[in-house]
């Protein structure tokens, strides 16, 4: 002790602490109402675009993981879809996925946007969280850049009270701005000690273990939904049938052939997706191809087909086929 406090060099002390502290590794997930900023926060923590973000709710349907590698800890982020009142079989399945994820992680981060009143949707989620007793829960006030400090303070108080009302205490309460990169590093600092002692679970360099085909499908789905969400909010599913390098290409000019089907529920929706003279579908193809090329780092030929999967949201067999 005496030797430590006499040490004049704080850097060396930090070094020593780093050497003696056990390495930790584990899983965390962010939950919260749609549009709360979960995907953006995941991306900010990981430092690269891995989850799909958009300015509209419920684009994250699949569980996408980002991995934060630090000297002292490895944090694996599981990005879940938003929990919502189920109206269809698909909705119920999604909620099951969410709850299963919650029960399996080491830390849960509840995301509440600073600029939105704490509402019934948030209470519904936190009530569910209160039932998961063993897992530490952090309240994260997102988008702190959008409000003045007074409003931020009120939000911090409101979420703290909600915990009290429901009979549990948040392990931490912290405001962040993923967009302004404010307190994002601190959030990782707070999560790390809550993880179990463990060597790294993934090799360094892995940013995500989401299968590429699922991520590609998500990128296409995101592009296909753009501008038509009000007409087709939950009626689009995308399945990548095949991803193959084109044969007979020179080594320095590779091309990846991707065949994907865009499923809609009713024949009448075909026109909305395809657009006049196929213009819209072409735009969807161009846009998603650019994102896919950025993701995979290789030129892509994208072949898109629109197919009708009648009432797939309500048919368990169709749901399984589409991977739910
Ligand atoms: N100003 C500001 N905007 C943010 C911040 N974080 C997210 N946003 C915006 O909020 C919107 C929703 O963010 P997402 O990360 O897609 O939210 P989400 O919770 O993952 O949404 P779902 O996938 O629908 O559940 C996007 O338009 C983001 O750009 C932030 O820190 N500041």
TrEMBL record:
Quaternary organization: Monomer.
Keyword Cytoplasm: yes
Localization terms from the record: Cytoplasm; Cell membrane
Xref: PROSITE patterns: G_ERA (PS51713), KH_TYPE_2 (PS50823)
Positions that bind GTP: 32-39, 79-83, 142-145
Protein name listed in UniProt: GTPase Era
Keywords: Cell membrane, Cytoplasm, GTP-binding, Membrane, Nucleotide-binding, Ribosome biogenesis, RNA-binding, rRNA-binding
SUPFAM superfamilies, A to Z: P-loop containing nucleoside triphosphate hydrolases, Prokaryotic type KH domain (KH-domain type II)
Region annotation (G4) ranges: 142-145
Family: Belongs to the TRAFAC class TrmE-Era-EngA-EngB-Septin-like GTPase superfamily. Era GTPase family.
Domain Era-type G as annotated: residue spans: 24-197
Function description: An essential GTPase that binds both GDP and GTP, with rapid nucleotide exchange. Plays a role in 16S rRNA processing and 30S ribosomal subunit biogenesis and possibly also in cell cycle regulation and energy metabolism.
Species name: Streptomyces poriferorum
Superkingdom field: Bacteria
Region ranges (G2): 58-62
Secretion signal span: none
Region called G3, residue ranges: 79-82
Region G1, annotated ranges: 32-39
Pfam families tied to this protein: KH_2, MMR_HSR1
Gene transcribed to yield this protein: era
InterPro entries according to UniProt: G_ERA_dom, GTP-bd, GTPase_Era-like, KH_dom-like_a/b, KH_dom_type_2, KH_sf_prok-type, P-loop_NTPase, Small_GTP-bd
Entry membrane topology: Peripheral membrane protein
């Amino acid at each position: 002790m005496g030797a430590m406090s006499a040490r004049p060099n704080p850097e060396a002390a930090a070094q020593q602490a780093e050497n003696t502290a056990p390495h930790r590794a584990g899983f965390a997930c962010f939950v919260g109402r749609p549009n709360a900023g979960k995907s953006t926060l995941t991306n900010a923590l990981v430092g690269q675009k891995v989850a799909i973000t958009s300015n509209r709710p419920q684009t994250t349907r699949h569980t996408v993981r980002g991995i934060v590698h630090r000297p002292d800890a490895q944090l694996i982020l599981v990005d879940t879809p938003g929990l919502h009142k189920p109206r269809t079989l698909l909705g119920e399945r999604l909620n099951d996925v969410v709850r299963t994820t919650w029960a399996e992680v080491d830390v849960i981060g509840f995301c509440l946007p600073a600029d939105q009143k704490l509402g019934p949707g948030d209470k519904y989620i936190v009530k569910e969280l209160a039932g998961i007793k063993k897992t530490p829960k952090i309240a994260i006030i997102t988008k702190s850049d959008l409000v003045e400090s007074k409003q931020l303070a009120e939000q911090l108080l409101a979420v703290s009270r909600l915990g009290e009302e429901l009979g549990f205490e948040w392990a931490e309460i912290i405001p962040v701005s993923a967009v302004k990169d404010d307190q994002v590093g601190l959030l990782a600092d707070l999560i790390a000690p809550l993880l179990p002692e463990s060597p790294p679970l993934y090799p360094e360099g892995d940013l995500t273990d989401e299968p590429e085909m699922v991520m590609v499908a998500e990128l296409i789905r995101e592009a296909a939904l753009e501008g038509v969400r009000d007409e087709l909010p939950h009626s689009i599913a995308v399945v990548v049938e095949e991803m193959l390098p084109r044969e007979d290409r020179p080594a320095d000019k590779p091309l990846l052939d991707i065949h994907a089907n865009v499923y809609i529920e009713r024949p009448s929706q075909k026109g909305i997706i395809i657009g006049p003279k196929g213009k819209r579908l072409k735009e969807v193809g161009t846009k998603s191809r650019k994102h896919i090329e950025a993701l995979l780092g290789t030129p892509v030929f994208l072949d898109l087909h629109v197919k009708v999967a009648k009432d797939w949201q309500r048919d368990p067999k169709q749901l399984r086929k589409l991977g739910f």
